[in-house]
């Protein structure tokens, strides 16, 4: 369902060219459970942004469900993003003036859901990440790990079939990060496709396949031994 | 040198009161190397902000080098912060329109250092965290782990004697986080006091003492067995 061929993303900085991605090839089937690892700066977030249709490559192709994403117009791309894909950002990207509940409800506004239903569905998503007692707090009234969990809840609230989580447990203690991984395990068991960037081997060991990037290319792509 | 007695920090949210810190007692001597751990929301960042003189408690006392910090006026407090304390924020807090180099040089502006010297000292700090080739990038042109390392470099550039690092390796792969810990080890060997919030046991094991918080109070305070 995800087919990436020779994907490149370059940035020109003055006389220098930075190859954030330098020819990535990847096939990801429906209902896969994959960890994306690699050193800081190796291109993981860049790849995630491309997979999430938040950015466009410099060259190469990305087919999502047999559609060449580069041939799709902006409105249709926005629709794919909102309906199909849930994205947890490495830097959370919460809106500072909205409460946790309003932040999580935002994707449901785009989905055209009525106010009562979306606040109820957002509340349920927040409870599923252990933040039932923090719904009215704004992001600056939350701890780092609580903001991270609001970002996770927001990515899941629209019940997307593809979940792209960029370091979803980086700010969490062991117990809380295992609770978040239990949540992802359940979503995987329900048939969804889960791609998690992590630098923690314990977290990666809970998935079924580990893809390692180095300097913008795939260095290894192996199933997890259970 | 750090003496905290019955420190409390409360937030009133409508009818509810949240006890972010609920009576913390702690003594930290010069040249200690301490890890602060605990579940998400247990009060670690709140305590770090109080120790870093970035916030004031609701009640209790904080003596830094025998000075009662609550009795100090704002100018003197700012001076203590800029000269004595290096702070790595959990959410980095970099200025988006400045390059990595300019961000790291900022504490030296407050220290009254001339432009040439501060850019040189900032460049050295960035090289020490492996970002010698990213100095002109702005924060949105850096990976998550690179931004984190800029935040570390900025905390160290003024050569403070107390380093407060709130999750300095949360976005880093193993190899890069060990390089950052080597840096902290060296600073400790030079006589400085290092307090690191971490949720990773491997990182905590590299320090000499682990303080665990739970629900805003100290649950345990133990030396590390080496
Ligand atoms: N401005 C605020 N208003 C209300 N509650 C707050 C505010 N700031 C923090 N809190 C609450 O205080 C508690 C402690 O927050 P703190 O940021 O110190 O936790 P932490 O231990 O650093 O957590 P994490 O590991 O997730 O970063 C949290 O439950 C948080 O929701
Ligand atoms: N807008 C940009 N302009 C120039 N270089 C960029 C830009 N965005 C990212 N880069 C560079 O591209 C490389 C890959 O960045 P990316 O964010 O994908 O890394 P990452 O693997 O997610 O790292 P981390 O683990 O630290 O989050 C980095 O070296 C970064 O400096
Ligand atoms: Mg990243
Ligand atoms: Mg914190």
Protein topology:
2 copies of one chain form a homodimer.
Chain A: E1 2-13, E2 16-28, E3 33-37, H1 44-51, E4 59-64, E5 67-68, H2 74-84, E6 85-88, H3 100-110, H4 115-128, H5 144-156, E7 162-166, H6 174-189, E8 193-197, H7 201-204, E9 209-214, E10 217-223
Parallel strand pairs in A: 3-8, 3-9, 6-7, 7-8
Antiparallel strand pairs in A: 1-2, 1-4, 4-5, 9-10
Helix pairs in contact in A: 3-4, 3-5, 4-5
Structure in words:
The structure is a homodimer of 226-residue chains. Chain A is an alpha/beta fold. Chain A is 34% helix and 29% strand. Chain A is built from seven helices and ten strands. Chain A has helices at 44-51, 74-84, 100-110, 115-128, 144-156, 174-189, 201-204; strands at 2-13, 16-28, 33-37, 59-64, 67-68, 85-88, 162-166, 193-197, 209-214, 217-223. In chain A, the strands form two sheets. Chain A has a six-stranded mixed β-sheet, sandwiched between helices. A four-stranded antiparallel β-sheet of chain A has the order 2-1-4-5, covered by helices on one side. In chain A, helix 3 crosses helix 4 (115-128). The longest helix of chain A is centred in the last third of the chain and has 16 residues, at 174-189. Chain A is globular, with a radius of gyration of 17 Å. Chain A starts with a strand and ends with a strand. The A-B interface holds A 11, 13-14, 37-41, 44-45, 90-91, 136-137, 141, 143-146, 149, 166-167, 170-177, 199-201 and B 11, 13-14, 37-41, 44-45, 90-91, 136-137, 141, 143-146, 149, 166-167, 170-177, 199-201. Bound molecules: adenosine-5'-triphosphate (2 copies) and magnesium ion (MG) (2 copies).
């Amino acid at each position: 369902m995800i087919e990436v061929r020779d994907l490149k993303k370059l940035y020109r900085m003055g006389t220098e060219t930075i190859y954030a991605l330098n020819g990535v090839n990847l096939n990801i089937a429906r209902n896969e459970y994959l960890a994306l690892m690699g050193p800081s700066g190796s291109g993981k977030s860049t790849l995630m942004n491309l997979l999430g249709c938040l950015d466009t490559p410099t060259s190469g192709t990305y087919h999502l469900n047999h559609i060449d994403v580069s041939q799709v117009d902006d409105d249709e791309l926005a629709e794919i993003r909102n309906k199909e894909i849930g994205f947890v950002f490495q830097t959370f990207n919460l809106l500072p003036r909205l409460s946790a509940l309003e932040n999580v409800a935002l994707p449901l506004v785009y989905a055209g859901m009525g106010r009562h239903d979306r606040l109820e569905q957002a509340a349920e998503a927040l409870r599923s990440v252990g933040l039932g007692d923090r719904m009215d707090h704004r992001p600056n009234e939350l701890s780092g790990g609580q903001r991270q969990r609001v970002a996770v809840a927001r990515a899941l609230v629209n019940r997307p079939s593809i979940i792209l989580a960029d370091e979803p447990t980086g700010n969490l203690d062991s117990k809380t990060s295992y609770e978040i991984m239990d949540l992802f395990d359940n979503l995987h068991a329900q048939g969804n496709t889960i791609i998690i960037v992590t630098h923690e081997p314990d977290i990666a060991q809970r998935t079924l396949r580990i893809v390692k990037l180095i300097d913008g290319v795939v260095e290894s792509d192996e199933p997890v031994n259970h």
